[in-house]
Amino acid sequence: NGEIRSRSWLVFSESKGAVFCVPCLFFGNKKNAFMEGFHDWKNAAALVKCHENSHYHKTNLSNLKTRGNERRRVDNVLVQQLNEEILYWKNILKRVIAVVKSLAGRGLPFRGHMEEIENTRCGNFLASLKLIAEFDPFLAKHLQQYAHEESGSTSYVSKTIYEELIKLVHDHLLQEIIPEVKSAKYFGLSVDSTPDIAHADQLTIIIRYVKKTGEPVERFIGFIANIGHKAEQLADTIVNKLHKYGTDIKNCRGQSYDKIDLTTVTHLYSSLANFLGELRSSPNYFEKFEKKAIKLCNVENYSCDLQRKKIRKVQYGESRSGETQVQDGQENFRINVYNIILDTSISELKRRSKAYSHLQEKFGFLNYFLTLNSNEIIAAASKLVENYLEDLEDLCDECLHFNKYLQIVHEESKDFIAIQELSNILRKNELYEVYSNIEIAFRIFHSIPSTNCTGERSFSTLKRVKSYLRANMNQERLNYLAILTIHAELLQKLNSEEIITEFAAVKARRV
After folding, report:
1. Each residue of 174-210: b (16+ CB within 10 Å) or e?
2. 304-319 burial, b for 16+ CB within 10 Å, e for fewer?
3. pLDDT of the residue at 182
4. Rounded to 5 degrees, what are φ and ψ at 408?
5. How far apart are CA 392 and CA 387, in angstroms?
């Protein structure tokens, strides 16, 4: 009928100068010109048509089309088999990662005395998998099939695998924290040190910042061992640590106080120092505490009262009349123990109260927007700007305007408003663009660490993670586990799919 159709089964070979029939080459068992190479160009039309209409060719072409069906193709079957295997190992890794997150989040050890899964001393990691397998037929079948394989075979339940997963989970957790720090810009640092079970001095670094939600948070970012206690050594270590995470030390803003106003803190410190001073000056308090101590320990005499007092030999030209009377045990304890403890506490409280008062002088006016007049606000705001010239610009004008705004919209009439409450007012009413400098002042204030409580808690984690049974743990693994334990709430929110994808990418790069 004059239509032109393409013969896709016919292929021309430039090297042979001939055409071949592909279906007959693949499935034919009888030799013909189209299998060996056809080049009779004078009779090409008739011979090609004859071959095309032959039963032999049609059978071979039908087989090719049938085998070429997507469901029956060999490559498709292999891809399907590969996808099933990928899904299988993904499901295994999900369970393994869940166990890693559970043990690390609680600071529990992974390894046991033995690494055979059937052994009763196989450790928490393998024991947890065995427990899950009791209620999970999929995992039970996997452990039965792979857990007893020789070293070097793939099972994903070996110590090598979970050590790699611990590192990956640690990296993903830091990838959640560090971008938040960079986004917040301003942050505060808390640094302290303590010896671990192996007598290595461990420096803890806590970073405090304000999240996008307005919530001030403190994050532990690692231990550093044996760096010394000199100021230069500490400074270099902290700067290098921050530089490693791409954080600029210039944005560090010192110390602050979370969810408690500075005025209250200052009054608490002053009243506590006065109370301790009263304890020191009044003998009645000492006698009262002495009676309580006697009831607790069931001892009625001081140790020095039980010993015979030595008589000093009188030297030439001396007499005993001028000798000072030897103190009894009670008086000795009051002067050399009781009073020293109180004096040290009072001195330390005064020092800390002075630091709080210094910060109160800078930020305290923000709590009294409703009571200060315009001149007082301008003077206090100008003083704050002097301390943060690179951060605050038009703070005075914004404070005056914000003062008027609070007088209009604030429902309760009270003299004192906490800075956290003022920050919530800005966030609730979406006024950060209007009062951008005030928002920065709030952020700087909340980014300063209040106390060293987070650092002390990190030391508690250090003692749990690096116990006497794990005293030989290296510094890198200590940091991995410490971060996962301290940030257990963030750990449980991590996406396991992303960790599995990264794990697969690492394995692919090694291959």
Report:
1. beebbebbeebbbbbbbbebeebbeeeebbbbbbbbb
2. eeeeeeeeeeeeeeee
3. 92
4. -85, -45
5. 9
In the chain, the amino acid numbered 221 is I
Helix or strand (DSSP H, E) at 66: helix 55-67
Q: 362: which 2 tokens?
A: 């800078």
Kindly state the greatest CA–CA separation across the chain: 149
Residue pair 174/190 in contact (Cβ under 8 Å)? The answer is no
User: How buried is 478 (Cβ within 10 angstroms: 0-12 exposed, 13-18 middle, 19+ buried)?
Assistant: buried
Dist. CA 27–CA 57, nearest whole Å: 9
- Residues linked to residue 224 through DSSP beta bridges, in sequence order: 203
Q: Rounded mean pLDDT of the chain?
A: 82
> What are the Cα distances from residue 29, in Å, to 25, 32, 37, 51, 226?
8, 10, 15, 15, 79
- The span from the CA of 160 to the CA of 154, in Å, is 11
Cβ-proximal residues to 507 (8 Å cutoff; 6+ apart), any chain: none
pLDDT one-digit tens code per residue, 48-84: 889 888 888 988 888 888 776 655 566 677 777 888 8
pLDDT in tens, 121-151: 888 999 999 999 999 999 999 988 877 666 6
DSSP 8-state secondary structure symbol assigned to residue 337: I
CA pair distance 436, 197, nearest whole angstrom: 48
**Rounded-to-integer distance, Cα 252 and Cα 280, Å:** 40
Q: Which amino acid does the sequence have at 454?
A: T
d(CA 466, CA 471): 6
SS (H, E, C) 113-128: CCCCCCCCCCCHHHHH
| Cα torsion 481, 486, 492, 496: sign | negative
Question: DSSP E strands: which ranges in 196-278?
Answer: 201-210, 216-225
Let me know: does 341 contact 285? Beta carbons within 8 Å: no
pTM: 0.69
Query: Scanning the structure block, which residue is given the tokens 């075979």?
Result: 153
Rounded mean pLDDT of 72-98? Answer: 82
pLDDT band at 258 (very low <50, low <70, confident <90, very high): very low
Cα 242 to Cα 219: distance, rounded to the nearest angstrom: 13
Backbone angles phi, psi at 13, to 5 degrees: -105, 115
